[in-house]
Amino acid sequence: MHKAIALSFLYLSQTACGGQTDDGSTSDAEVFALGTDGVTSGILSQIFIDNLGVGQGVIAGVAASDSVVRHVGDRLYIVNRFGSDNVTIVDIDTKQLVAQISTGAGTNPQDVAVIGDSIYVCAYDSGNIIVLDQGDEQATPTLIDISSYDSDGVPNCGSIIEVDGNLYASLGILDDTFASQGGKVIVIDSATNTISTDFDLTNNNPFGLFEASSSTGPFQGDLLITTTEDFGTGNGCVERVSPGPTPASAGCLIENSELGGFVSKLQVVGDSAYLAVSTSFTEGKLVRVDSSGTLAEQSITPAGQHVTDFVVCPWGEIVTNDKNQGTLRVYGSDDVERTESAGLDIGLPAAYANGIICL
Hints:
The protein is mostly beta strands.
């Protein structure tokens, strides 16, 4: 896990950006991206899709050097991970800080799911799912014990997502050498905050955050998550998880070996899953896979870029990071890059994954 030490409060400025739909009309939207120096500091900057302008740190002081962001309803939930151990909540409409709530020292939170005032926190270094009350940041958290899933009492929860009142949490089950001893999903009934069932994934080490799909779309409401046993072209895949009355793994959508690397970020858009695939320590690509697992013939991004994070905006434009440059790049809905060769400087190198949102 990436390490982070410093964190300050977040205050948002009133800003907006626009993009163009396929029919030529303008769609107002907001794009925010996390940047990090990888040691002590992080920022949240804004990108204006219409003119490629950047407001560096216009949403100032939100992030530590290891943060991810989730968008739920009218709020942003910024999970400040290793060494910071808190969740920062921002109201999108008022552009105001709502709360910053500790998850407990040394818990290393990774992801959140939100139901009403309850924030369910998946924490890498805790034996519990931690339930915070966003209506009362001083309230004592509720703890859902998951320690029995690993012999060391810490089953390494990596992601959590809500579907129809149930919470699905992925467990990496690492040993003291950080080798995964399994890949498991537990299901929590939010009405009782108890575990209702669990099941194994096809491969060990679920890596990254769950992505939901539409129940009426070609992915049939399945959740997608990546499994990565060796961070190379060996064992691992993009795995499908079927929620519902009898939740279970639905097998692999596509194998890492077919992709030529491991997936750091994914997003379901219509009839495709977009995947950021790292093929080496210095290069990565952005590809599409359809619901049958058929890989598009070529990458959207060119050789020489190292894409580990991205977002597809509602009007079809794509914002990616480029770890080689430390910048962001913008592609039109026609997959043609609109940014210059160096990309967009957001003030600090763009975050590794799950650090870009488009509203």
